[in-house]
Amino acid sequence: MNGRPTKLAIIGAGAVGTAIAYSALIRGVARSIALMDVNAAKVAAEVLDLSHGLEFVPRADVVGSDDMSVCAGADVVVMTAGAKQKPGQSRLELAEATIGLTRSILPRVLEVAPDAIYLMVTNPVDVVTRAALEVSGLPPNRVFGSGTVLDSSRLRFLIADHCGVAVQSVHAYIVGEHGDTEIALWSSATIGGVPLTQWTPLPGRPPMDFAAREAIRDEVVHAAYKIIEGKGATNYAIGLAATRIVEAVLGDEHRVMPVSTVADGFPGLEDVCLSLPTVIDRGGARNRLEVPLSDEEREGLLASAETLRRMQARFGL
């Protein structure tokens, strides 16, 4: 970074975009945070609200506008803008509208932030990321999706809660689609270095058997539905997850995270965007790790890829 002040630009000042801005401020991720949204009054109010708390966080500037120029010179751009669902509109139709919006917005952002790393957060994130790659013409390391970073965090939380350990001691990944076909990698999951499949329950705790693993996986898959039913949207955890990805980029951390991008070199996965553990640094999404998979996990991952392939085809991707 050569000591140059860093800038994070966020497209979309809705629940997710503002959660990212808020968590980025608290964590001191960037020296400047820019919010862009077509709703000028909304973005101005959000910037004012965030600015009133600058005394309590690491030094930063917060700016916002309905003009794309506010994103000029950004090091990282996070895309959270998506089409709003209309009455009677199907999820497929909503996805088509969101992809259309991405195709419209991204070229304009590229004009003012041509050297940025682009993080796609808008759902369906895997298909939106694929569209963004085609529209931008940028290499996969510079355009990738938040993928299953949040899903993996949900998985780790549930394992920790079940086993009675700190979530920071759990290492486990969700891979594949960010959606119903995602795969939990139980065969490589560990707690404090102990393989999860060999975990001996702590006193008073239930076993981590097949039934427990299935229940946890099901809860991970349906977590967003439960939250949306209760409060209308998910925002805090995805805000933290996206901020952690940005932090790994700007801090050149070489941190392994399951982000979504094209899986070149992986048989059966080459033409889709999906999540696999990937090294994140200042250059973006770098090397993917060749995680050992059980036969069942490999079959599930290929099935997840096929689901995404069919979805991409519907949108001409």
SSE string? EHEHEEHEHEHEEEEEHHEEEH
- Contiguous uncertain segments of 5+ residues: none
CATH topology value of the largest domain: L-2-Hydroxyisocaproate Dehydrogenase, Chain A, domain 2
Give the overall shape, derived from the CA principal axes.
globular
- Alpha carbon gyration radius: 19 Å
Q: What is the percent of helical residues? A: 40-55%
Beta-strand percent range: 15-25%
Domain Lactate/malate dehydrogenase N-terminal: 6-145
EC number: 1.1.1.27
Domain Lactate/malate dehydrogenase C-terminal: 148-310
Function: Catalyzes the conversion of lactate to pyruvate.
Word description of this protein:
The chain is of the alpha/beta class and 317 residues long. The protein is built from eight helices and 14 strands. Strands 3-2-1-4-5-6 form a six-stranded parallel beta sheet, sandwiched between helices. The model has no long low-confidence stretch (mean pLDDT 93).
